[in-house]
Amino acid sequence: MQSYSIPENPVLIADIGGTNARFAIADSEQPYFHLAQTFQCADFDAIESAIDAYLLAHAIEHIAGLCFAVAGPIIDGSVRFTNNHWQISSAELQQRYGVSQVKLLNDFAAIAYSLPKLRSTDLYNIGGDWPTVAGENYTIAVVGPGSGLGIAGLCSRDGHTYPIITEGGHAGFAPENELQAQVAIYLQTKFGRVSRERLLSGPGLMNIHEALCEIHDRENPVLSASDIANAGTAGTYEICTLTMDLYFEVLGQAAGDIALTLGANDGIFIGGGITQRYPDHLQASKFRHGFENKGRHSDLMRRIPTWLIKRKNPGLVGASVYALGLF
What we know:
Layout: E1 11-16, E2 20-26, E3 33-40, H1 47-57, E4 65-70, E5 74-75, E6 78-80, E7 87-89, H2 90-97, E8 101-106, H3 107-114, E9 123-127, E10 138-145, E11 149-157, E12 160-165, H4 178-191, H5 202-215, H6 225-234, H7 238-262, E13 268-270, H8 273-276, H9 279-284, H10 287-292, H11 298-303, E14 306-309, H12 314-324
Parallel strand pairs: 1-4, 4-8, 10-13, 13-14
Antiparallel strand pairs: 1-2, 2-3, 5-6, 6-7, 9-14, 10-11, 11-12
Helix pairs in contact: 3-12, 4-5, 5-6, 5-7, 6-7
């Protein structure tokens, strides 16, 4: 393995969520970043402490700029995280590190920027056999169930690329069969409004499982999302299997809705840790049925490819691509 030489003016990138902060140095060529290191946000009192630890670990004395993908709303160049105690201010980081620019980027916008850079080996085909991104003009989207449900698009026209930042995970869930309707009624009783994220996320798996236990008059053992997914895909517990079946089907329905809403006819990409761990079960599930089952537009939907992202840290890839267009 070749050693990596830190460039004269390195750009520090990061993908920061509620639990983990992943740092790296941007690169213009594959694999698009180097020296990736993950920190637990809870181990540091502030973002600056984590940055300093990373720079010290790699003996980096100077950086040219910072570009961070963040899982939270960016307001006036600042972000306050929902699920950790950090707050990031672009102006404060710029002053502290003496850089020309600090850019904060929506975490799913960063994943969207990564999509044209993904190779066939980074992807697992879940339907359709078109190239990942073809030509100069395209519209694509990414859907990622994890701790929540992230959705973003990417539109390219005449050499210019534009992210489509959404809060589509909080759009309403629309049941498409009797069992889904029963689940929706149960969740409506519990939450009032039922969004997509109430089903398509880690907590969503637990919600589906709880609802199915009630519907099938079974005792709820209150399993974690990981335990539900493992038992469901292994076929060792019937209610967990039903939970995963419904989860994959609803994910397909939501992905199809997003393709129609954004006009993402050139492909839908699936990210998020839950789905990435079970590619074969996703492919064998009713995902594509849910995706294509759009009535008068079913013929259109059958033409749209869907891909599972296998590439590790696509948010860092996107942050690098975005950053190197700026610095």
